[in-house]
Amino acid sequence: MMDATVLTTAPEATLPKLKLYSSEDAEAFVADVRKAGFDYLRFELPDMAGLSRGKTIPIDHVAHYMTTGLNLYGGTVALDSYSIPVRGSGYNEEMNYIDCVMVADTETLSPVPWLEKTGRVICDTMWYDGKPQMATPRLLMKKMLELAAAQGYTVKMGHEYEFYAVDLETRKPIFGGQPIFVTARTHGHPAIDDLIRTLQTQGIDIITYNVEHGPGQVEINYSALDGVAAADRAFVFKGTVKEYLARHGLLGTFMTKPYKGLSGSCSHFHISLLHSETGKNAFLDPAAEHGLSSLMRSFIQGILDHARASMAIWNPTPNCYRRIRPRTYAPSNISWGVQDRSASVRVKASYDEATHLEVRVPSAMSNPYLVAASVIASGLLGVRQGRELDPPAAGPQEDDERFEKLPTAIEDALEAFEADVALRDLLGEEFVKVYTAMKWQEAGRLRDEIPQAELDEYFELY
Of the residues 90, 126, 288, 326, which has the maximum number of CB atoms within 10 A of its CB? Predict the structure, then answer.
């Protein structure tokens, strides 16, 4: 059983440390950047929505900013989905709108193939006094990874995204119908095949790609990685889809439910724990039912225990909840099952080292760092408490009325998140304050908009 103090108080020893680079290390890195053929380097910060924000630096100035930090507006992570500063977040007016500094992670250097001689590094941020911005998604994920590491586990993860590819001007999908897995459709537009090659050029190991159930809907899968590199890969993937397709007259949208009556876009999240010392899968017990270790069973139950609260993170916008409907392969209740696509948690019970679980609830609009952080936190809480896994249903999980329903509106999910003290405490007050203030602000602003459907229904007739 896990130490309760480690999981609930998040001592300083578990918080990520940030430091600037020495002149020698900065110059050595710049030499590597030049050797890679880059004249410009993008310093990128994954914001709360998972979008890239930052600045592009000519190579001659990169070493300087690595030693001093690259200045950026300190409330960047506390800008909502329309880039409006979030009131009451603690990161904007309360700080007199001051700057923070971006600290490059040199291990994330990769090319931006569609720009000439341009590379990128993914950054973390800290205030000028050296305090890390723990509301930022990447640092929050690192914090959860360190909690797992303190218990002797490495976390292996992969994100699996769907998106719609549509004409940039007309916004009509690049193909019609419901041609899921139809090979001709997969290769029907050259931009998709070119996109695959562009992703591979950035070191993203593509394992499969195919068209999905919706018209113009595509799914591209890539291999899992350990630790924060898994979410970094997802961040680069989503950004590449957006930027690269736009250069081919297409719009790649991860909006969860862009079309009424058509398939929503998801982000299935795959995860397993490995023993840090041996690299062996801690979720596997060949002698147990389905090959699932007691650790895995408690981890799954922890995810289920905190699923209602986690919905606020897994489905971060009002639009996301239009996807949560029965019999659409978008889980609508809190359940688990072995290989059951209708369950919230699908167990991939392969009876070998590949054994892992798949959380099927997150939408394509979800932030990969935050999905990972919330799932790790929930699972570790289940393990700490020694939770016993509730039995699954005999048939499809979503057909069993005994299981609690997932929230179908973001307001309900936010209320559940605010009521889940254990999960909030583990994620930390700084993140929770920024995130909840942001999501309530977005929800309130969008609720005041007049939907076109209401105008069509009421304006002329009544």
Answer: 126
Q: Mean pLDDT per segment of 10 residues, for the chain of length 462 residues?
A: 41 71 97 97 98 98 97 97 96 96 97 98 97 98 97 97 96 92 92 97 96 95 98 98 97 96 96 97 96 98 98 97 87 94 94 96 98 98 97 86 94 98 98 98 95 93 92
For residue 14, the model assigns a pLDDT of 61
Tell me what pLDDT residue 217 has: 97
Q: Is 292 helix (H, G, I), strand (E, B) or coil?
A: strand
- Tokens linked to 99: 């700057």
CA distance linking residue 12 with residue 408, whole number of Å: 37
| Contact status, residue 418 vs residue 353, Cβ threshold 8 Å | no
Query: Are residues 209 and 218 in contact, defined by beta-carbon separation less than 8 angstroms?
Result: yes
Angle at 397 between CA 395 and CA 398, to 5 degrees: 120
pTM for this model (two decimals): 0.95
Helices within 40-83 (DSSP H only): 62-68
Which string of b and e fits 63-98 if b means at least 16 CB within 10 Å? bebbeebbebbbbbbbbbbeeebbebbbbbeeeeee
pLDDT value for 3? 37
Q: Which of 137, 147, 18 is nearest to 431 (CA)?
A: 137
Query: What residue ranges do the domains of the chain occupy?
Result: 18-131, 143-437
State the CATH architecture for 143-437.
Answer: 2-Layer Sandwich (3.30)
pLDDT, mean over the chain = 94
Tokens of 381: 């809480």
**What is residue 5's predicted lDDT score, i.e. its pLDDT?**
36
Fold of 18-131: Ubiquitin-like (UB roll) (3.10.20)
| Sign of torsion over alpha carbons 107, 113, 119, 123 | negative
Q: What angle (nearest 5°) sits at the alpha carbon of residue 236, between those of residues 232 and 242?
A: 150
Strand partners of residue 205:
none
pLDDT at 414: 98
* DSSP calls for 136-202: SHHHHHHHHHHHHHHTTEEEEEEEEEEEEEEETTT--BSS-S--TT-HHHHTSSHHHHHHHHHHHHT
The residues facing 157 across adjacent strands are 225, 271
Say if residues 174 and 165 touch (Cβ distance below 8 Å): yes
Determine the Cα–Cα distance for residues 318 and 447; give it in Å rounded to an integer. 9
Q: What is the pLDDT of residue 10?
A: 47
Distances from the Cα of 460 to the Cα of 304, 450, 454, 456, angstroms: 47, 15, 11, 8
Q: 49's torsion region: left (phi>0), alpha (psi -120 to 50) or beta?
A: alpha
- Copy the structure tokens of residue 151: 């218990």
